[in-house]
Design goal:
Length: 479
C-alpha cells in the first residue's frame, strides 16, 4: 500500500514540471526519461494517521483551441489584476498555488491569468480569466482554511532566491544550511532544505549522481534527469525524501524534502502544494522567510562624522553584540517602529565616510541597490555588490532578477545618476495572515531618514560622500 502512496506523490511531483518551467524563462523541460524505474519496497506498512481535512490539489492546464480561441488577451490580463492591491494579488496567487492552478504561463500568457483560467475550468465555471466576486470569495475562503490549518504561506528564501510554499506552523525552525536554508519541525520529522550551487563548482549531471548516493542511507526509488532539471525520490533511513533541482544562468537551484514515513498521509497533500508553489527563478518576489540566526548580517549607512549609523530595525533587534565591520562594536541608540529604522553608534573612530543626505530624488524608474551580502554569498568575502531594481509605487522596490538577498537589508538605494534615494528593507512574511502585506522589498526614503535623525538630535554631514563609501556591514550576535 505504501508504494501506491509514493506513486501518487511522484505523479503529482512530476506533473508540475512544465508549469514551473514556464514561469521561469529558459527552463524548457525535455521529455521525461527516467534513469531508474521505481522499485517496489517491501516494508511494513506505517500506522494510519488521520489526514487533515483538505483535498489534494489537482493541477489542470487550460489548453487553447486554435479553432475556438477564447479571446482573453493582454487586456484581460490587466483586467484580472485591475483594482487588486499587491497584497490582494499575492493572497489570490497563494490560493491558486495551493489548489494547483498556478502552473506558469501558457502560450505566453500572464501566469496569473493562466492560473485563473485553470481554476475556472476545474470548477466548471465560465472561463473568462477574470474572477467573479463569488469565485474570489470561495478561493480566498479555502486559502484561509489552509492558513489556519498549516500556516500555509508563500515566501522567498533569502539565501537562494527561490520561491517556496511552506506549512509554516510545521516548519517553525529556520537555520542556515551549507548551501541554503533549512526549514524544519521542532523534532525534525519534516524538513525542507534549499540549495544554490554555481555550475562552475558542480554540473547538473554530477549533482544528480551525487544526490542519488549521498548520504549513504538513501535508497532511490525514482529519478529523472533532463537537460536543465532533475528529480529524485525514495527513502533515507526511515524518512521519505525527494530532491528537485533546476539549472539556469550558471546556477543550480532546488530543494530537498524529508519527512517521516509514518506522516505520509498527512504530508502528501501539503507536498503537492509545495511542489506547485516552488519556482527556482521566480518572476515576482514574495515576502522573505524570517530567519532567527544566532549571527545575522546586514548593512548600515554611516550618517555622521561622530560614528552614527542607520540600519534595519529588525537586524538590530535582540542582539547581545552589534559590530560594524572595520569600525568596532556599535551601541544601539534608538529605533522607530513606523519607519523600521534603528540608530547605532560607534565610538573612537575618525576615518568614517558619512553619507551625503541631500534633497529627495524620489521618482519611479531604475535604481541600484548597493550593499554587502551575507559572507556565504561571497565565500567569506565582504565585497560591495550592486543589484539592479526598479522603484515603483508606494516605495516598492522590484528586483530585476531573482537573486539571493541574504544579508542585504539596510543597503543603499541610488538612482541612475548615483544620487542617494534611501535605504532598502526586506519584509518578512506574517504567519497565517490573510491581511494585505507590505512589499517584499521597500524603500525608506531620504526624507524619512532625515526626520528620524532630527528626532534624535543627529545632524547629518553637510559635506558627505557617495553612498557607496558610506555602506558598512553590520553584524548582530544573538544567543
Amino acid at each position: 500500500m505504501r508504494l501506491g502512496g509514493s506513486t501518487v506523490m511522484l505523479a503529482l511531483l512530476l506533473g508540475v514540471v512544465p508549469g514551473l518551467a514556464q514561469e521561469s524563462p529558459g527552463l524548457i523541460p525535455a521529455p521525461t526519461q527516467p534513469t531508474e524505474k521505481a522499485k517496489p519496497a517491501h516494508r511494513r506498512a506505517a500506522p494510519k494517521i488521520a489526514a487533515p481535512r483538505v483535498a489534494a490539489p489537482v493541477t489542470v492546464v487550460a489548453k487553447t483551441d486554435a479553432g475556438k480561441a477564447d479571446s482573453v488577451g493582454t487586456e484581460s490580463a490587466l483586467e484580472t489584476s485591475a483594482g487588486l492591491s499587491d497584497g490582494e494579488r499575492l493572497k489570490i496567487q497563494s490560493a491558486l498555488l495551493w489548489s494547483g492552478d498556478y502552473t506558469g504561463s501558457i502560450g505566453g500568457e500572464d501566469p496569473f491569468l493562466s492560473a485563473v483560467r485553470n481554476f475556472q475550468k476545474r470548477a466548471k465555471a465560465k472561463i473568462t480569466g477574470i474572477l467573479t466576486s463569488s469565485e474570489r470569495a470561495n478561493l480566498l475562503a479555502a486559502a484561509k482554511n489552509h492558513e489556519d490549518e498549516f500556516g500555509w504561506t508563500i515566501v522567498t528564501d533569502p539565501s537562494t532566491g527561490v520561491r517556496l510554499g511552506l506549512p509554516a506552523k510545521w516548519v517553525t525552525q529556520v537555520r542556515e544550511a551549507t548551501r541554503g536554508t533549512r526549514y524544519s519541525s521542532p523534532h525534525g520529522d519534516v524538513q525542507v532544505e534549499t540549495f544554490r550551487i554555481k555550475t562552475t563548482e558542480l554540473k547538473l549531471a554530477a549533482l544528480f549522481d551525487q544526490q542519488k548516493k549521498e548520504p549513504a542511507s538513501r535508497k532511490v526509488e525514482s529519478s529523472a534527469l533532463r537537460d536543465d532539471s532533475f528529480f529524485i525520490s525514495g527513502m533515507q533511513g526511515l524518512k521519505n525524501f525527494s530532491v528537485r533541482a533546476y539549472a539556469r544562468d550558471g546556477e543550480i537551484r532546488g530543494f530537498t524534502l524529508l519527512f517521516d514515513q509514518m506522516m505520509e498521509t498527512i504530508v502528501a497533500p501539503v507536498t503537492a502544494a509545495m511542489v506547485s508553489a516552488f519556482s527556482p527563478f521566480p518572476e515576482r518576489s514574495s515576502p522573505f522567510a524570517a530567519m532567527a540566526k544566532p549571527v545575522e548580517y546586514g548593512n548600515g549607512l554611516i550618517v555622521s562624522k561622530n560614528g552614527h549609523i542607520i540600519t534595519d530595525r529588525k537586524l538590530a533587534a535582540g542582539c547581545q553584540v552589534i559590530v560594524a565591520a572595520g569600525l568596532g562594536d556599535a551601541e544601539r541608540v534608538a529605533e522607530d517602529n513606523d519607519s523600521g529604522l534603528a540608530l547605532l553608534r560607534v565610538y573612537g573612530t575618525h576615518n568614517v565616510s558619512p553619507l551625503a543626505l541631500g534633497a529627495d530624488a524620489f521618482k519611479k524608474g531604475d535604481v541600484t541597490l548597493v550593499g554587502i551580502p551575507d559572507p556565504k554569498e561571497q565565500n567569506g568575502a565582504k565585497k560591495l555588490t550592486e543589484i539592479k531594481a526598479r522603484l515603483a509605487e508606494s516605495n516598492a522596490i522590484e528586483l530585476r532578477q531573482p537573486v539571493p538577498m541574504a544579508g542585504f537589508s539596510g543597503a543603499a538605494a541610488v538612482d541612475v545618476q548615483g544620487r542617494f534615494l534611501g535605504m532598502m528593507q526586506m519584509q518578512n512574511f506574517v504567519l497565517a495572515s490573510a491581511e494585505s502585506i507590505a512589499q517584499p522589498v521597500r524603500l525608506v526614503t531620504a526624507t524619512t531618514i532625515r526626520g528620524f535623525l532630527a528626532a534624535h538630535d543627529v545632524a547629518p554631514a553637510t559635506d558627505g560622500s557617495d553612498a557607496r563609501t558610506a555602506v558598512v556591514r553590520v553584524i548582530c550576535v544573538r544567543k
